[in-house]
Amino acid sequence: MTDRQERALGRLLAIRDALSRGTVSPEWVVISVCTTLETYCSEMLEELIKNHLASADKFEAELITAQKSDLNKSWHSRLKWLSVGFSMQLDDSSHQDLLALIELRNAIAHNGHSFTSRQTARYEEFLRHRKVLESNFGVLFHGAAFKVGPTSGDMAIRLGRKIALDFLR
What's the CA angle centered on 88, arms 32 and 44, to 5 degrees? Predict the structure, then answer.
């Protein structure tokens, strides 16, 4: 197990402890799990880029440097460049679950208990995420409005743990 995995798992354990003590809401857990994964995934991508730049030729180094801020700009770009540049991918189920959880985090952060108009404008994608959130995270929906269920926090932590163990290096 790498140091990064240990630190991520330690943070997830602290989140689980807070949830089990009842001192935090499941919404807080969703946000915290997503933030934890983002922190360590970004750290991993930065380290991989740094190591790659050490052996890159001048042209390649300039290209990477010019695009570096875009590589780590969003979950979609982060996952894309980890896959394209370093052959690192989540399994399909974890990838789908993570993207749905990120959308839930964004909805909580920007709109409280409803997906934003920007999120629902991409209707097919919204429906895919909604289905995943209902079946895998216990989120209850009424249109674009949602209620994070009592087991949603535990399910988010489980996904975070799986990604930390299987993906982070």
Answer: 50
**Distance between CA atoms of residues 164 and 166, nearest Å:** 6
Separation CA 90–CA 82 (nearest Å): 10
User: What is the tens place of the pLDDT at every residue in 12-57?
Assistant: 999 999 999 999 999 999 999 999 999 999 999 999 999 999 999 9
69 pLDDT above the threshold of 90: no
Whats the size of the chain, residue-wise? 169
Token couple for 33: 């799990």
Nearest to 133 by CA among 28, 29, 30, 52: 30
What is the distance, to the nearest Å, from the Cα of residue 64 to the centroid of all Cα atoms in its chain? Answer: 23
CA atoms of 157 and 136, how far apart (whole Å): 12
